[in-house]
Amino acid sequence: MARSGKVAVVGAGFYGSTTAQRLAEYDIFETVVLTDILEGKPEGLALDMNQSRAVEGFETRVVGQTTGPKGEGYEAIAGAEIVIITAGLPRKPGMNRMDLIETNAKIVRQVSENVAKHAPEAVVIVVSNPLDEMTALAQIATEFPKNRVLGQAGILDTARFTNFVAEELDVPVGSVTTLTLGSHGDTMVPVPSASSVDGTPLTEALPAEKVEELVTRTRNGGAEVVALLKTGSAYYAPSAAAARMAKAVHEDSGEVLPVCAWVDGEYGISGVYLGVTAELGREGVRKVVERDLTDTELAALKEAAEAVRAKQADVQSL
Ligand SMILES: NC(=O)c1ccc[n+]([C@@H]2O[C@H](COP(=O)([O-])OP(=O)(O)OC[C@H]3O[C@@H](n4cnc5c(N)ncnc54)[C@H](O)[C@@H]3O)[C@@H](O)[C@H]2O)c1
Fold first, then answer.
1. 3-class secondary structure, 100
2. Cβ(118) – ligand 1 distance below 6 Å
3. CA of 47 to the centre of ligand 1 (A)
4. Among the atoms of ligand 1, which is closest to the Cα of residue 41?
5. For the chain (length 318 residues), average pLDDT per consecutive 10?
6. Quick check: CB of 128 below 6 Å from ligand 1?
7. 131: Cβ below 6 Å to ligand 1?
8. Of ligand 1's atoms, which has the minimum distance to the CA of residue 152?
9. Residue limits of the Lactate/malate dehydrogenase C-terminal domain (predicted)?
């Protein structure tokens, strides 16, 4: 496919910069714009990434742009078909994602208002935490149609689950299929019934206690990395997930991926941003794809929906 279009990444921290790098190395966009409020940081990272082009063999240009408190510099994202919002604080050891809500809500609201002004046609992919709430807030602040605002969590959580299963069984990750739905937090819903190893259901490949252990480790996957790093949170797997979503949108691929999307009647759940599988294309979410779930999994998904619904109602005022 020929190189085309512009994707913007707001926030040039660990998550944003690795996402920009992955997008540039895909070599499918004309331009990747990277912004941050830290004077010179996005410009410096862009310069560095552009200098890697001759070695890595890609032509996409990375443009760095410092933005100001009144939205100065946001002209750089004009015409972006996709904007990925990574701006916001990460967790520290012992912190819950929800502890970030007030600080990150201010940041995500300010960013979203500038996105709406300068890239009114964009599909917005949110990654800032707490994820489900920040996705809801970005939709409110941009006033974009709900299909054009989505969040990244499910691809990452699923990738973590897959990695744990592959390591446990000592098999290639490519032979493992898993799925997680629900929230990006305590009410995450790993779905063993949709998981398999070389076609064998996970529930037959591993004893029930082991599956439960891996499910718990998946639910705590982010905290495990945060505890080891001491400062900052995971970014290699998270950036791979966000870049993958942007690629699906850019290529209008129709891929069905686990993402945080607006749910409107599917699974008997309405009016909430929640982790579900959805078909992605140029317009963002083409449709939420319902899967067969066991009664226990469906009950857990409904519980997750109610937990995030209450919090998402609160973000309106933040
Ligand atoms: N959804 C997920 O699966 C997932 C996974 C990992 C991390 N995260 C979240 O992603 C966010 C970023 O993580 P990180 O590791 O890159 O953190 P980081 O601290 O390395 O980077 C955050 C960047 O945001 C910038 N920033 C702050 N306010 C801004 C504003 N108004 N406009 C533009 N930029 C602004 C900061 O200057 C900083 O460079 C955090 O909220 C983290 O919790 C989400």
1. helix
2. no
3. 20
4. 39
5. 93 98 98 98 98 98 97 98 97 87 95 98 97 96 98 97 98 98 91 96 96 95 95 96 98 98 97 97 98 95 94 84
6. yes
7. yes
8. 1
9. 156-312
Q: Evaluate: CB of 19 within 6 angstroms of ligand 1.
A: no
Judged by DSSP in three states, 70 sits in coil
Contacts of 57 (CB under 8 A, 6+ apart): 27
Q: Give CA–CA dist 136/253, Å, rounded.
A: 24
What separation in Å is there between the alpha carbon of 11 and the centre of ligand 1?
6
276 contacts 185 by C-beta, under 8 angstroms: no
Please list, in sequence order, all residues whose beta carbon lies within 8 angstroms of the beta carbon of residue 86, skipping any fewer than 6 positions away. Answer: 9, 10, 11, 13, 15, 16, 19, 127, 128, 242
Measured by CA distance, the residue closest to atom 3 of ligand 1 is 153
In angstroms, rounded to a whole number, what is the distance separating the alpha carbons of residues 220 and 112? 29
Which long-range contacts does 116-119 make (Cβ < 8 Å, 24+ apart)? 116/141, 116/142, 116/143, 116/144, 117/71, 117/74, 118/71, 118/74, 118/75, 118/77, 118/78, 119/8, 119/77, 119/78, 119/79, 119/80, 119/83
Considering only the C-alpha atoms of the chain, give the largest distance between any 2 of them, rounded to a whole number of Å: 57
* DSSP symbol at 78: T
Please tell me which residue in 22, 91, 118, 184 is annotated as part of the active site. 184
Residue nearest to atom 9 of ligand 1 (CA): 128
**Are 238 and 156 spatial neighbours (Cβ–Cβ below 8 Å)?**
yes
184 is known as an active-site residue: yes
Q: Is 217 exposed, middle or buried (0-12, 13-18, 19+ CB in 10 A)?
A: middle
> Which atom of ligand 1 sits closest to the CA of residue 235?
6
Instruction: State whether ipTM is beyond 0.95.
Output: yes
284-289 and 270-281 beta bridge pairing: antiparallel
